[in-house]
Structures are given as C-alpha cells and as structure tokens.
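For the sake of transparency, this paper describes our internal protein records without simplification. Because each token names a local backbone shape, the row as a whole describes the fold. One such record is reproduced below, unchanged from the form in which we store it.
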Amino acid sequence: NNLSLLLRSGMPLTTALEEVAGSIKNPAMASNIQDIVSAIQGGMSFSEAAKKFSDIFSPTVIYLIRIGEETGRLDEMLKEASEHVNRIHTIISDTKKALLYPIFVFISLGIGLVFWLYYVVPKILELFKEMNVSLPTLTIYLLKTSDFFQAYFIYLFIGFVAVFIGVLTARKGSRQFRKITDWFMIKLPVSGAIVSASNLAHITEYFSLLIKAGINILQAIKILSESIRNEMYRDKLDEIGKGLKNGSSIAEAFEDVSIFPTFVTRMINIGEVSGTLEEQLGYIAEEYSKKLSTLVEMIGKMIEPIVLVIAGAIFAVIFLALLLPVYDMVSQVGGM
C-alpha cells in the first residue's frame, strides 16, 4: 500500500522501495527489499526480483506486479494487491479464531481435569483411606479413575504428543493424508461450515482479483488451484480446469464438481451471461466473508455456556464423590 502511494506521487520505483525499506522495523524484511532494489538496478524487472522472495510476495501478488509493469499501471495493481492481502488476512484470521478457540478452551478444561485427578483427588482419597472410611460406589469409581491417571499419565501424555506430531508430519508429507483430514473437517457439523465458508471466500476473492487483473479464465483457475491449501477444493479446481478445456461454460464447470453451493454457481452464471463475472465473484466473496465473521461470533457465544455445562457436570461429579464419604462420617458421628 505504501509503495503504491509513493509511485502514484511520481517517485521512481527504486527510490520508493528504498523509502519503504527505511520505514520497516523488521530488519530481515528491510534487507530483502534492499536486495530487490539491487536486483532492479542490475537490470531485473520488479516482478522477477519479487519472485525470489516468495515468503514476502505471494504468486497472485507477483502476477499483479507483472501486469502492472506490462500495462504501466503498477501503482493501481499494487493498491489492488494490498487490499487483496488485507481481505485474505481477514479470512484466514477469522478461520483460525473459529477453529482454534474451541480447541483451546477444551484443552484448558482437560488440563484442569487432569490436574484434579492426578494431584488433588488422590490426596483427599488417601485421607479417607487412613481414616478407614467406607467409600460409596461413586467415590470408588473416582478412586479407580485417579489411580489410572497416576499409573498411566506419562504414557497418555507421550501418546498425545506423538499423535499430534504424527498428524502434523503426515499432513506435511502426504497429500493423501491431507485429503483425508480435509474431507473429515468438511464433513464435521461446525468445522465443515467454517472450512467451507473460508475456502469459498478465499477462492472467489482470488478469482475476482485475477479476472480484474486481466488474467484469462484457465490461467486464473490454475493459479487458484496452486494457491488453495485445502486438498478437496484443489482437486475440484483441477476438475473445473479440465471441464473448461472440454468446452464447458464457467458455471457448468463449477456445477459439475458438486462441491460449490447452488448460490455460488447461480451467481457465476449471472456474471458470465451479463459480463459482470468479476463483480459477482466479489459479491460472493463478501457474502462468505460475512458468513465466516458471523460464525466466529456465534461460536464465541455458544462455547461459553457449553463449557460451563460440561465443566459444571464433571466437577459436580468429582465434588459429590468427595463429599459423600464426609457426609457418611458426619452421619456416623451424629448417630453415636
């Protein structure tokens, strides 16, 4: 965004890049931009120099820079790129919030429960044993659960860590495993709605931008397929590309893969027939971004009462199991 403003004011590209580098607090980023300046001064184009730093510039942004260079509208393309990056960042951020918040809450609840069963409960139950108190059935079950956690806690912990690392490694190294886990996430009730809304917003946002930049449909679909992380949607985009090559219309190709909602295919059809595909895709992206934000807000409101009910039920059972022997002791003393 800053680079776009500086170019629009008439500043030369290398001077504008140096100005941007001077305003960046991250020294590694500033150094990379200085390297880009050196490459441009050595005769390389901005898009070619930017391509060497894929951790800074995404493929879509590089395409926009290249189009800006070819059309003489680099400042406009950089402005489009900055707005696009902000919208994509919002989509990713909302998706992470929606998926990670419930996980974090339930892991925290699990840690609290393990602490009680492993550390607190055994000390209280040991006191009951020393006093030769007759333990009710519920307390005996709690004792067995506590003994199990004490005996196998280290194995359970190692197993959990091993499974977590194994899943991350398998997702990184195996496309087939990613497809299975992505399919599983889509099929789950809550996460399915989040993942679908996120990917649909992501795809239509990218697609709209690429068409606006003047990239042909087949190339745009190829770029989309390379940029999307969800393997299920990636396969469907590849199928769409094959359908377009076989002569299908854009709406037909999207409809044939059976993963895009009717709303999306109808809007694409309207845009294709009326020549407003870019606007219709932008409208779809906006709608699904709003849906994702709504889901994040809804999950935040839903998770609190759910956690309260679950935590209340669990700890009510624990406290009841601990209080029953005390009640029996008091009754016996009262009887004496």
